[in-house]
Write a structure and sequence with these properties.
- The protein has four helices and seven strands, in the order ααααβββββββ.
- By secondary structure, the chain is α+β, with helices and mostly antiparallel strands.
């Protein structure tokens, strides 16, 4: 019990020592960036605009073989072909047609196996990539 009491006293003294004192930096008012990190250090400082303009590291493209527009959540399901392989992606609503080339990033994409789309009336996909960022190449 005595070593634990000594440890608690040492901890208390170190906390009190760090709170006291009058260093030059303690007298200055914090800048706005210091205030935001002091109040919420675990929140990333990047904004949505910053991440939207960030370069995509895994950009791909494929030719549209089939396009299905979901009735519900504004999602377009695309069967694409690239390098003689066919695969499905789902992205936010795209105005596209068969033959168009679609560019997409696999950064933050989610791959699902045996996915059933209720928005397409129970259509089942063996494998599909949900893509947060896709566009028709012009």
């Amino acid at each position: 019990m005595r070593p634990m009491a000594i440890g608690l006293i040492c901890l208390l003294l170190s906390v009190l020592a760090s709170c006291g004192g009058s260093s030059e930096s303690a007298k200055k008012a914090p800048t706005p960036s210091q205030q935001s990190t002091a109040t919420a250090p675990s929140i990333p400082q990047a904004t949505i605009a910053d991440t939207a303009s960030a370069p995509k590291t895994h950009v791909h493209e494929g030719k549209v073989v089939k396009a299905l527009q979901a009735l519900g959540p504004n999602t377009t399901y695309l069967e694409l072909e690239s390098n003689n392989k066919r695969f499905w992606i789902a992205a936010s609503k795209l105005d596209t047609k068969v033959g168009d080339t679609v560019q997409y990033s696999t950064d933050n994409a989610v791959k699902m196996r045996d996915f059933t789309s209720t928005a397409l009336g129970g259509r089942k996909f063996d494998e599909i990539l949900f893509i947060p960022d896709a566009k028709v190449k012009k």
